[in-house]
Every structure is written in C-alpha cells, then in structure tokens.
Amino acid sequence: MRTRVLCFVFLLFLLSSNIALVKSTSWSQVAQFSDLGDYQSDYFNCSHVLWRINWDYTPDPLNPTAAALLVTVFRQNVTMSITSAGNYGNVTTNGTSDVLEQGTFYLTIHIANLDHYTVVVEQ
Predict the structure, then answer these.
(1) 35, 43 Cβ separation under 8 angstroms
(2) d(CA 43, CA 21)
(3) pLDDT digits over 43-100, tens only?
(4) Within 13 Å of residue 106, how many CA atoms lie on the same side as its CB?
(5) What is the pTM of this model?
C-alpha cells in the first residue's frame, strides 16, 4: 500500500511540474565526438530531464579483446561523476546509456586499443 501511495505522489509531482519523463520518439543531437583519443569535452546543455549517450566503437584488429571505451558524464562545477557508459572487449561494440539529469555537463572519454569510436549525445 505504501508503495502505491509513493508512486501516486511521484506521478502527481511529474504531472504538476514542467518535467516530462517520456522517452522521445524524435531525438535531437546535442554533441558528437569521434576519434579524438582520450578527451574531455566542452560544456553542453541538456534541457530535457531524459537524455542519452549513444556509443559505438571498432576494436583494433591487432588486439580486439583489449578494446575499451569509457565515457563519463560530469555536471558543471561538480567533481563527482553522474554516470558512465562504454564497454571493455569486443563482444558488444555499441550501446546506449540514458541519463536522468537536467543541466550543463561535460564528458570525459577514455579509450584503449580502438580503431574507431563515436559518442553521440542526444536529447
């Protein structure tokens, strides 16, 4: 019963606020980063509460099992990371990570043994 009440209160909060947690059927690109090596991005703004990071990489053919991509999201003026996305190895070479935060952010990208990578931020 208590869980139902909390869910109802949360739903009322969402409906009464300007925040929408509905997944978009039409995402717009905020930023894209490709083949920059280890990198720290400039600041970018996400005005939606729900946004995502799409990542894709091609392992170095000489050492595919040691391929790694790590994308970490930081909020402006905060040293603690919000979330990380990426993978190690060549089993899964692409994916999407949702972020439930609104504001101004930057990414750090760390790579190892990659032939190519692309990271796209969408909201």
Answers:
(1) no
(2) 23
(3) 999 999 999 999 999 999 999 889 999 999 999 998 888 888 888 877 789 999 999 9
(4) 11
(5) 0.76
